[in-house]
Each structure stands twice: as C-alpha cells, then as structure tokens.
Amino acid sequence: MPNDLRGFIALLEERDELRRVTVEVDAALEITEITDRISKGPASANKALLFENVRGSGMPLLINAFGSAERMAWALNVEHLDQLGERLRNLLSLDMPRSLPDKLRKALELLPLARIGPKVVSQGACQQVVETDRPSLSALPIPKCWPQDGGPYITLPQVISRDPATGRRNIGMYRLQVFDDRTLGMHWQLHKGGADHQRTAQARGEQRLEVAVALGGDPATIYAASAPLPPDIDEYLLAGWLRGKPVELVKCVTVDLEVPADSEIVLEGYVDPTERRVEGPFGDHTGYYSLAEPYPVFHLTAVTHRRDPIYPATVVGRPPMEDYWLGKATERLFLPLIQMLLSEVIDINMPPEGVFHNLVIVSIQKQYPGQAHKVMYGLWGMGLMMLAKHIIVVDADVNVHDTSEVAWRVANNIDVKRDLVIAEGPVDALDHASPQPHFGGKLGIDATRKGPADGHTRRWPPDILMDKEIQTLVDRRWQAYGLD
Fold it and tell me: Is residue 13 a part of any domain in this protein?
C-alpha cells in the first residue's frame, strides 16, 4: 500500500483509477466544474484527476483521489471500508487470556501498537526546498471552487497546532481562505481542537499560536486530520495504526511543531489569538454557501516543499462528492466504538443526503420499550455525534444502507405523537436553518416495531414476504420463463 501521495497516485494509475488532464485548466471554477461532473457522473467515469497544467502555476493538482469507496479503502490500507471496523473490533477484543499460549498470542497481537507512534526524523522530502525570505503562496494552484466564494481556498490540509497549556498536538482539516500571498483565513469551528487551542492561548495572554499546514503525504495522514478523535488521541497515532508503521515527522524551520516528512508542501506560521478577519462565503459540503463571518488569521512565516511538489485538493458542495467518502470511512471505522458503548446497535449509516452530520440511521436489537430513545440520547452524548440533527432508529432486520427501505419503515411505522423525539442541543456551525448559531433543535424518529410494552395494544402486522421454497423454485425455473 502507498507510503506517500506519489505512491498512492501510482497505485491508482495501476488500477485504472486515475486520469491525467494535460490541457491547460483554470484553478478558478473550471477545475470544480470538471470534478463535480466526474463525482456525480457514472461510476465508471468517477476517477481521481491529476491536472498537470494549471494556469499560472508550475505544480500539478490532484483531486478526487478519495472519491469512491474503493479509493478510500486503498488509501487506508484495506480493500473494503468495512475491514476498518473489523480491524478495530479485533483490537478492542479485551478478553483476558487465561493460558500461557493465549497470553503470548495476545502479547503478539498488541506488540505492533508499541511501534506505530509517530517519530521525529532528521530530514524529510517536504524540506527539499525551504523559503523563509518573504515566503509566498503565489506559486500554489489554489482553486476558487464556487462563484460566490470569498476567494481561493486550501481545502485538503492537515492543520497542526499545539495546546499551549498541555503541549498536546491536534491535527484538523480546516479550510483556509487566501486573503493575500502571506495571510489565510483559518476556519476552525467552535467545536474543533484548533479553536480550543486558540481559546487557551487567548486566555493565557499569548501573542502567537504557532501553526503548520501540511499538504499531501501519506493518504492515511490526510484522512486522520478529518477524523473526529477524542482530544487525548493523536491523529498521527491513528494514521500509524492504519498504515501499520509510524508516521515520520520532521521539525519545522520557523515554528516549534513537527509535520509529516513525506508531505508535498508545508506552510509554517502563526495565528494571533485575538485577531479576526471576515472569512467567506464558501460553497460548503451542505450544498449551500456558508456565510461570511469573522475568523482567525494565519500569517505565513515559511514555505517548504519537495523539489517537484504535487498540490492536493478537494471540492465540497452538494453531495455526493469526495468528502462523503472521508466521512464514510469514519462511519465504518468508529462503528465498533459506538457498539462498545451502545451494545444494542447493529449498524449505522450516515447517507450523503444528510451531509454526514445531519442524518444518522441506526439499527438496533430492540428488547424493551424506550430503547430507541436511549440510543438517540446516547448518540447525542457521544463526541461530535452531538451535532447530529436527525437520528432514525429502526429494527435489527432493516438494512440501514437501503434508504428506500428506511423511508418505507419511517413512513409506515411511526405514530407522530408517540414516536418523535424533539430535543435541543449543539448543532454544526454550518447549520443555516437553526435560529441561532451553534444551537438548535434535533429530531429523533423511533421507526421500530411497537408492541404492548410500548403501549401499542393493536396487533402489529407482519411484513409481506414470499415463502423461501417458492423463491427457490422461481430461481431454478427463471430461464424457462423466457423473461431475460
């Protein structure tokens, strides 16, 4: 599996999942329109795109690299996304070994964990070229994605900062608007780790919060920046576990931070915790523009890069698009953790129409009245799942990934007065429908079967299903009917 972005490109090309575009294209809008058509077109045409001739820049631009289930899986060292959850489930199997052979086997299973933590190395490809004397963003082919965007945006970064109080590192994926050649708008939202570091720095009266922005590198490190991890878990530890070996980091040249040594490009700089500038609008993954609002400002102190860097980017907009598959990887990876805390959960789906956080469909093994409500509140109390706007709970035999079946169950299985749960709580910063920022209403829908224990005194009707014997008979005789 790939060790860096170039290895991933080679893998995609070998598997016929990459298209090279050699004609000149404009980073302002044209690349977005091409990518949007590819993302939403026939599955056979949905490929990663390498634009080799971007107007005004000598750097090629890679986009849609994670834009399918297969490519997302390959990026994370598996063949199918469901294998992520299987790997984590095996890791979380904490049955205490009883015999000596069992203890040795468990020790061998856990031994790799001691070897996957990030490690600092003396040099990296990301510092083959170092620019500290009036560094500039002008050479980067940063796209302007949508017509009303406030400017070009860096869309696929690893934004690295350190908690001023604890020294704990955070890596997040926050968009950055280009204000000029040396300043960027830092869109870390209220609930994110970078914003927490900024608040801590401001409370301590510090003048600067050092930040580094890594572009490219191992696909697992890119993904890890998007993963909603608890504050105590280092994203590069997750990346090391996914790739099966440590992430190698190199010290920055102007700030006291480390970045992945195999990055394509690194931007070093700082945020003044008290400074704000209007950032936006931005065509976002909700399919709407997020509005212009004051956000912190990133000041550039250095640019380092490979001798022949490749600029990685993504386009967000009305789903499905590439970012959906980053979210789907998180869904499949974190399912075992949800099941550890809510053992009745069978499966979960966050469909593209819900832009990941706006719609969560969960199936449960129902055993008692009110259990669907318990699961709703349990999910709302679980990390960034607090932002989930709608939660639909169905029975264990419902395929949560078949949204047509889910809609059928919801339309037929609920009594509106009994089965809707309306709550209030935190909502995503991009939720334009809530009457105030960051806080609004939530809806839980209990679409499970009801019985006397639920206060439903009427008999619940059975599903219409054909006898297995008749299905087998028709399967056997299908050719004889002459219907193909």
Answer: no
